[in-house]
Amino acid sequence: MASSSRTTAHGFYSSWTIRENKKFEEALAFYDQDTPDRFENVARAVGGGKTAEEVRRLYELLVRDVNKIEAGQVQIPLYKNVGYNGGPPEAISYLLNISSTKSFQV
Fold this sequence. Notes:
Elements: H1 9-13, H2 18-30, H3 38-46, H4 52-70, H5 90-101
Helix pairs in contact: 2-3, 3-4, 4-5
Subcellular location: Nucleus
InterPro entries: RADIALIS-like (IPR044636), SANT/Myb (IPR001005)
GO molecular function, one term: DNA-binding transcription factor activity
């Protein structure tokens, strides 16, 4: 996928399978930001041929999107009957929770 400043986490994230998304979310929760080789470990956990660079790129896009949401630059849509039990993907919820309790940098 070509890199672009207009690339969104949603667009990049939607190219992953549901199973890969779930494994990504679980691995992010397991391998915190202090874990050596974090993105290599997450990529291994995700499987499906995902590389550490793809994992890092998705993470960075999610962090950027969360920062925009928190800065009021993005209106949060009302989720209604849209998979994931009617809410945003768990990785986004996880990042929102982390960013509201401590600041972090990519």
